[in-house]
Amino acid sequence: MRITILQGDITTRTVDAIVNAANSSLLGGGGVDGAIHRAAGPELLAACRELRETDLPHGLAPGAAVATPGFRLPARWVIHTVGPNRHVGQTNPALLVSCFNESLRLADSLGAASIAFPAVGGGVYGWHGSQVAEAAYDAVTGFGASHPASALELAEFVLFSPEMEQAFKTVFDQRKV
């Protein structure tokens, strides 16, 4: 799987799926979540409300992922995942890795060839950029090794700041074998 790291706006990426760093309610919020909801249009909120009324009455758990159509986005799907919130004691890095793993697994099951991730957990949920990058690296490289027949060809990390972009580049460069 090819990996790219860039600073930019995930809502403009022409990929099969973008990942939303959602909150457990799935009903929008700030940061990446709010930007994706605004760009996708009101249909995304309606789809998320339907998920809450049917499959997810208690919301989406940290580390889990669920997909909706992309609606007005260039991406065909939005994969929503909830990062662990360090500020409320959710400090297990395995839960952060699970966000990336579950998103990759879901994208693969949808037949996606390309996926774009934000820095899940790296905003208001308090994870340091290098911790998010380590979780992302472990998930993407592990997924590629354990799913050789996957259709996923490209994983983009579309980051909101130069500092986060640098954190990802540093970790990915240091961990290359």
Automatic annotation (TrEMBL):
InterPro entries in the cross-refs: Macro_dom, Macro_dom-like
Domain of life, per lineage: Bacteria
Ranges for domain Macro: 1-176
Pfam family, one: Macro
Alphabetized PANTHER family for the sequence: GANGLIOSIDE INDUCED DIFFERENTIATION ASSOCIATED PROTEIN 2-RELATED, MACRO DOMAIN-CONTAINING PROTEIN
Protein name: RNase III inhibitor
Organism placement in taxonomy: Bacteria, Bacillati, Actinomycetota, Actinomycetes, Micrococcales
